[in-house]
Write a structure and sequence with these properties.
The chain has 302 residues and is α/β, with parallel strands linked by helices. It has one domain: Rossmann fold (3-Layer(aba) Sandwich), CATH 3.40.50. Helices cover 51% and strands 9% of the residues. The protein has a six-stranded parallel sheet with strand order 3-2-4-1-5-6, sandwiched between helices. About 2% of the residues have low confidence.
Length: 302
């Protein structure tokens, strides 16, 4: 018997992964596991683009709203929870779909990463100790495709240990993996100029829908400024606006829009490393293409 089958929908921010996931899940009779490092948090809705109950159209979603603000959540924790959710979906006779844009989360599950502690390298450690926190953070985010959250981006020792593990092969292609599933990976993105326009339009739509008020409510409810800043992107820049770093919403949105565009570029660098992704034609009919690929994949004998 072969491995159970898992459909993955990955890609850049603002490319329509959630909507495609719902439509494809309805077609194949599936349930969705979210692979987003910020959507695991309760109350982080508009800022993360979390799918609404109405948008789910009755398709069950897993690993949304599982952690409270201020708590840390690692890729290893996500992997364990995702395995449990996917195995439950399979036991119910449904097709599991892993949908999201956090590269490390996607690969940890799809490729079966083995998380372990690397043996310290004194020479590497000495070099990393000389690096500023921002440089260490950039190294981790570039290698993993994640926006660091929960204060991780300011934890120097944790950043150093993460870079050490990445440099020594832990959680990367050469590390020993134990795949649990046979995977079909479908990719979603747009040409740069189209994607940037979609990012700007979505940003202002969320601002008008109350994204700034969402961050203010999180602060009032006990989410610390350190936690919110650590979430990056929307939460960091809106926090800076609320605390006076930006004078106007327009100034904040300008800086935030460019930060999201830069993040989307880093996401593509991460996902393009995977040669097995079928990139859908977003200028045509990506749903039909996804349905055709999924049907063929699921019909293949185990």
């Amino acid at each position: 018997m072969g491995l159970p089958k898992l459909i993955v929908i990955l890609g850049t921010t603002a490319c329509g992964k959630s909507g495609l996931g719902v439509a494809l899940a309805r077609h194949v009779g599936g349930e969705i596991v979210s692979a987003d490092s910020r959507q695991v948090y309760r109350g982080l809705d508009l800022g993360t683009g979390k799918i609404t109950l109405q948008e789910m159209q009755g398709v069950p979603h897993h690993l949304l709203d599982v952690v409270s603000p201020n708590e840390s959540y690692s890729a290893a924790q996500f992997q364990r929870a995702a395995y449990a959710a996917i195995d439950g979906i399979l036991q119910r006779g449904k097709t599991p779909l892993l949908v999201g844009g956090t590269g490390l989360y996607v690969r940890a599950v799809a490729e079966g990463y083995s998380f372990r502690d690397a043996v310290p390298d004194p020479v590497l450690r000495a070099g990393l100790e000389k690096q500023p926190v921002e440089a260490l953070r950039a190294m981790v985010e570039e290698q993993t495709g994640c926006v660091l959250t929960g204060g991780e981006e300011r934890n120097r020792q944790r950043l150093i240990r993460t870079v050490e593990r990445l440099r020594q092969g832990d959680m990367l292609e050469q590390a020993p993996h134990v795949p649990r599933y046979t995977v079909l990976s479908l990719g979603m993105t747009f040409p740069r100029e189209v994607l940037n326009r979609r990012i700007q339009q979505r940003l202002w739509r969320r601002i008008n829908d109350g994204m700034i008020e969402e961050v203010a409510a999180l602060r009032a409810g006990g989410a610390t400024d350190k936690f919110l800043e650590g979430l990056g992107l929307e939460y960091r820049h809106i926090l800076w606006y609320l605390t006076g770093k930006y004078a106007t919403v327009e100034e904040m949105a300008d800086h935030l829009g460019r930060a999201i565009q830069h993040f989307a570029k880093r996401q593509m660098v991460w996902f393009k490393k995977d040669k097995d992704v079928l990139w859908l034609d977003t200028a045509g009919d990506p749903l039909s293409q996804a349905i055709q690929a999924a049907d063929a994949f699921l019909e293949e004998a185990l």
